[in-house]
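Section 5: illustrative case.
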């Protein structure tokens, strides 16, 4: 009768204890293959997978190998290696579900780093990188645009960053001392960063790179001499990534003119031995603007949107010299593009967002954290190597935990962000897409048909959870004892979390008898007075209680009726992103959670306590009203609130 214990418990503890930024990295370059030397002297051909968190090699027959630095050989593993470090939460100023405006003229520090055994391949690397990073319409050899060109294009001039290049500085150790593999990740890249910072501190005013006035320079970049591991598979090389010194050493690196914390790094050379393009640099720098990785960071070899996004392997397009444009989702995220909500009708001559065209959004009206973004993509400029052209759709299923923990697309069954080419007849919640076509000038036409389902009495639904996908036993089928509520929890919406959670029959089960737990509901966005309603029951105990906490303000506990689902409601004010938790004592069953904007003026201070609702009317299967008290009814199946309920 008890739900399954969540494996997220350890991660949640770390998130609460530490305030830092998630470890972000570039994924393995697709197609990196080599013959691995094994302990017995034989070799096996395998493909590089993973990222800085955990890297491994995969053969065509799905055997998994990892490098063993002590013996210099590869060892077969029974499973994909887990990341060595749990990924931590981002700072609250960079949480990925809401728009984070990044605009104006900015400066970023770039430190060039060579090693005791590896110099830059060019005689004047500082001059080279001043052009590669800052050049206007920069074209030289393989280069067809600088990093500054890239961000000017993405922001349509709203974000103008100048990269101040210092160095190169030579470190005291060879590259392998910082980059060798240790339990699935690089051993000491942070030592490269701290040593290099100390060497350039006298040349740098860190206040110049503090964008928000907190005394800490933003997103310092490092370019290190030689190759990286992500596109070569060389185990002693540093894998490009972004991380935080606070997590590494427990504190920021302090200097007379300011402090350093978050950093990112990229290699000088690509796998061909040429100076690498700006793709990896722009991917890692974009993490500093708040964007999460969109490939599977749990190292499954799943690239998520793949070449559709620079936050996956779109950074590798054009061999890294022509990373794809930001998607409309990513541009909206950093405040460079506004989304227009779609209505039924025809849309003609829609240009790309790089040409001042519009991007459109369709929301799930029962959960506005789920939505589709529609935009036009044209194979030109930074999108010259884009996989498709025409209508591209991004589906978003926002969950504050997965965004903060950089695990947006780690569940293949429920991607947080997915991208694909829009197709005629495709369903977008209550709408249908049709009549898609591309004009000769590259603009786009399409039509949308359908309407939103209105909510009665002027109310607007902002969140709804039916639990109808929960296919266990217990609750609505009249069963409360024995092996109930033990099926895998499968709600309509992602974002639910409790240490113990499971499925009953079209209801959710949370907690454990006589124990205290916190149940986290999915976050939602609303502005105004809201009403929450739900059904709840205690399981085999009259001692089960529930109290509602909204944005930290707690109401009084309610005592739940044993083995009987009863309706409750409460009213509260919402101002933007809202977090609701239920403090539980004992095991409880929950069903039909709904939150609506009432349309009434906000006037409530704190939380209005949850109160029982009037019993719902009960109907038999012929639709006849039979009263409100199920206890007085004979055994059978009845309709309550449009659901079948078994009375035993």
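Designed sequence:
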């Amino acid at each position: 009768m008890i739900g399954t214990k969540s494996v997220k418990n350890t991660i949640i503890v770390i998130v609460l204890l530490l305030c830092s930024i998630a470890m972000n990295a570039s994924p393995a370059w697709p197609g990196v293959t080599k013959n691995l030397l094994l302990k017995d002297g034989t070799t096996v051909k395998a493909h590089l997978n993973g990222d800085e968190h955990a890297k491994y090699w995969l053969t065509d027959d799905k055997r998994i190998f990892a490098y063993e630095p002590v013996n210099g050989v590869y060892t077969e593993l029974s499973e994909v290696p887990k990341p060595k470090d749990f990924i931590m939460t981002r700072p609250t100023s960079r949480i990925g579900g809401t728009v984070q405006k990044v605009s104006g003229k900015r400066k970023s520090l770039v430190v060039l780093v060579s090693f005791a055994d590896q110099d830059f391949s060019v005689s004047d690397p500082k001059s080279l990188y001043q052009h590669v990073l800052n050049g206007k319409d920069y074209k030289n050899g393989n280069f067809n645009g600088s990093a500054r060109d890239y961000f000017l294009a993405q922001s349509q001039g709203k974000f103008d960053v100048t990269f101040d290049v210092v160095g190169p500085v030579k470190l005291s150790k060879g590259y392998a001392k910082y980059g060798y593999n240790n339990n699935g990740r690089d051993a000491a890249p942070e030592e490269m960063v701290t040593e290099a910072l100390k060497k350039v501190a006298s040349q740098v005013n860190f206040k110049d790179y503090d964008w928000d006035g907190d005394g800490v320079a933003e997103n310092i970049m490092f370019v290190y001499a030689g190759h990286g591991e992500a596109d070569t598979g060389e185990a002693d090389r540093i894998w490009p990534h972004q991380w935080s010194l606070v997590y590494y050493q427990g504190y920021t690196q302090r200097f007379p003119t300011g402090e350093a914390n978050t950093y990112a790094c990229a290699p000088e050379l690509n796998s061909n031995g040429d100076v690498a393009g700006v793709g990896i640099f722009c991917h890692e720098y974009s993490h500093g603007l708040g964007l999460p990785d969109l490939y599977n960071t749990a190292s499954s070899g799943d690239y998520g949107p793949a070449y559709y996004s620079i936050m996956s392997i779109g950074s590798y397009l054009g061999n890294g010299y022509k990373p794809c444009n930001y998607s409309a989702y990513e541009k909206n995220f950093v405040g460079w593009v506004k989304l227009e909500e779609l209505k039924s009708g025809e849309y003609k001559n829609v240009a790309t967002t790089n040409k001042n065209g519009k991007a459109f959004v369709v929301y799930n009206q029962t959960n506005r954290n789920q939505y589709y973004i529609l935009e036009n993509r044209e194979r030109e400029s930074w999108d010259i190597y884009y996989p498709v052209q025409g209508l591209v759709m991004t589906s978003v299923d926002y969950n504050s935990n997965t965004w903060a923990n950089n695990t947006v697309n780690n569940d293949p069954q429920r991607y947080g962000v997915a991208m694909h080419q829009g197709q005629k007849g495709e369903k977008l919640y209550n709408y249908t897409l049709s009549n898609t076509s591309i004009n000769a000038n590259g603009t786009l036409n399409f039509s949308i048909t359908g309407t939103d389902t209105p909510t009665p009495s002027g109310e607007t639904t902002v969140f709804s959870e039916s639990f109808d996908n929960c296919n266990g036993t217990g609750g609505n089928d009249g069963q409360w004892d024995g092996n109930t509520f033990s099926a895998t929890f499968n709600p309509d919406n992602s974002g639910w979390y409790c240490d113990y959670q499971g499925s009953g029959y079209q209801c959710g089960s949370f907690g454990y008898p006589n124990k205290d737990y916190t149940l986290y509901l999915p976050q939602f966005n609303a502005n105004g007075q809201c009403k929450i309603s739900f059904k709840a029951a205690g399981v085999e105990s009259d001692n089960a209680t529930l109290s509602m906490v909204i944005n930290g303000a707690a109401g009084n506990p309610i005592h739940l009726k044993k083995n009987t689902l009863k309706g409750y409601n409460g009213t509260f004010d919402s101002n933007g992103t809202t977090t609701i938790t239920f403090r539980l004592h004992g095991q409880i069953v929950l069903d039909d959670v709904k939150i609506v904007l009432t349309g009434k003026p906000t006037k409530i201070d704190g939380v209005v306590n949850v109160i029982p609702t009037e019993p719902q009317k009960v109907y038999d299967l012929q639709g006849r009203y039979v009263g409100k008290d199920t206890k007085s009814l004979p055994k059978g199946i009845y309709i309550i609130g449009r659901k079948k309920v078994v009375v035993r």
